[in-house]
Write a structure and sequence with these properties.
The protein is α+β, with helices and mostly antiparallel strands. The chain is built from 5 helices and 8 strands, in the order E-E-H-H-H-E-E-E-H-E-H-E-E.
């Protein structure tokens, strides 16, 4: 399996290695690659398909849609984040964003999967790929913050070795952390 890695370090524009071709547990063929400015319309399409609940889970706020500035930030590596896009055929179906800490040794991961592609192993395959990219780029841990009623995300991450801890009781939030091996 090939990996896309940032050769200049996480969150810094560098030479791209080839995308990853993967098949989910349900047999969905995916190509996973770093998102670029050319992918803004595809990212917008992913978010346009998300339900109000999906948007709340993703952003922890009742956001209806992302504006052009928000979408451009997702692909702006100078903003301290790296986004990845999962494409099946010609359709962008999911994205993951790593928001790097100041020292670039850890990042928060945030996933978004179109509802019509859920339950097909897309989240698992995308997160597995992004964790491998993060480890190869030298990150030592990846974390996420999930709302307590986002059972699917919490269960997925726990199955992948993330350790869950209560972050807040009101609203109910969990912090999930996974240590990475180089």
């Amino acid at each position: 399996m090939s990996r896309t890695l940032m050769t200049d370090g996480p969150g810094v524009a560098g030479e791209e290695l080839p995308p990853t071709d993967a098949i989910t547990r349900a047999g969905v063929s995916l190509t996973i690659r770093a998102a670029t400015v050319a992918d803004v319309d595809q990212l917008a399409d992913i978010y346009r398909h998300l339900s109000a609940q999906d948007m709340r889970f993703r952003f922890k706020l009742p956001i209806e849609q992302l504006g052009p500035d928000d979408l451009n930030t997702l692909v702006d590596r100078t903003a301290g984040m790296t986004s990845y896009i999962a494409v099946s055929g010609d359709t962008a179906i999911a994205c993951a964003t790593l928001v790097h800490d100041h020292d670039h040794d850890a990042a928060e991961v945030i996933l978004a999967v179109r509802p019509d592609w859920k339950g097909q192993g897309v989240s698992w395959t995308l997160l597995e790929d992004v964790l491998a990219r993060a480890a190869a780029a030298g990150l030592t841990r990846v974390s996420s913050v999930e709302l307590g009623d986002d059972h699917d995300a919490i269960n997925l991450q726990r199955e992948m070795g993330f350790v869950a801890r209560l972050k807040s009781a009101d609203p109910l939030e969990f912090s999930l952390v996974k240590a990475l091996e180089p």
